[in-house]
Amino acid sequence: MAAPQSHETKAMPTAQQPDQVSEAFGLLKAPKLVSQISQSENKTLRLNALRVLGEELRNPLDAGGVTRAGVTEVLTKLLKDDDTKTREAASKALAALAVDPNGRFSLSSTAAAPLILPSLSDPSPIVRSNLYDCCLSYTAVRTGIDEVVLGGFVPVLVKKATSETDDVRHLPLQLLYNCIKSEVGLREALDSNAVEACIENLAHKDSLVKKDAAGTLGFLCFADSAKITAIQNDAVSKLSSLLVDPFWKVRANAAQALMSIIQTDSGKKAIVSCEGVAPLIKLLKDPEGLVKINVLKTVAALAVHPDARKEMRESAECLPVIHGIIDGGDEFLSKHALIAREAVLWQP
C-alpha cells in the first residue's frame, strides 16, 4: 500500500531585499561589510551598512577586523559625499572608531586628521559634532594630539570657538584644550589669539561653553604671555563674576583660571581692584570638592597681596570656614586648607 502523500509545502527561501545588509562570517565578515559601505550604489543599503558598522565597533575584536579591512579610508572619503545622511552616518562611525585603540591606530596610520579637518565646516551640525567627538577621543593619547596639531587644527579651532553654533561651540574649546598640551599646539593657539577667543566666551549664555572657555583659558595662562593678555582683556573681572554661576563646573574652572592668572603681581592687583576677593571667600563654602580645592589654591596664592590678605583676615567667614575644612575629615582638602590658612595669617 502506497504511503499517503503529504500536502505540506516547503517555504521557498526569501529573496534578499536590495536594502538589506548581507552578513558574512569569519574572516570575510569585516571585508564584506566594508565593501557594502564603499561600493554600493544603493544609498539606503550603504546607510544600513554604516549603522551595522556602528554596532560592530562596540566590540574590540570586530573593531580590529574592520580597521584592518580599510574602513577608516572609506569613512574619510564619505565625508565628502553629496548626501547629508551619508556624511552624518560616516562621521558617527568615525566617532565610534576613535574610542577604540584599534581605531585610533588606524586614524594615525592612514593620516586621517587632515582629511577630517575640512569637514569641521560641514553644513550639518551633526557631522561637525561627531567629528569633534572623534578628535576628542583621538587626542586622548599623545599620538593623536601630535597628529591633530600637525594637521593644522589649532587656528581653525580658535576661529570655531567664536563662530560655531551655540549647541556645538563647547566642543572646539574642549579640543583646543587637548591640543595645547603640545608645545607646538600652545604656541599656535597663542599666535591665533586663543586667549581672546576664550575670554569672549566667558559671557556666553550656554553653561558648557562658559565651562570650557574658563577651563581652556586657565590652561593657556600657564604661559606668561597669556596671563598678560588675559589681564589686559579684563579676564579677571569676567572670571570673578563666574564664581557665582549656578553650574558648579563653571565655578570650578573659573577659580582654576584665576589661580593661573594671579601668579603675577598684576593679576593679584586686578582681582583686588575688581572686588573679586569677596566671592572667592564665599565660595569656600561650596558643596563641590573640586570647587573648594581650586578656591583654596587661589586664596593661598592671592594672600600674598597685602590688601587681599587684609580683606581675608577681616572677613567673618574666611578663616572660620578654612578652619572648618581643616577639621572636616577630608585629608586632601585639609592639606590645602592648612596652606591657605598659613598664607592668610602670614606676617611680613
TrEMBL record:
Keywords, alphabetical: Repeat
Gene3D superfamilies: Leucine-rich Repeat Variant (1.25.10.10)
Keyword Repeat tagged: yes
One Pfam assignment: HEAT_2
Superkingdom per UniProt: Eukaryota
SMART domains: ARM
Protein name, entry field: Radial spoke protein 8
Native species: Triparma columacea
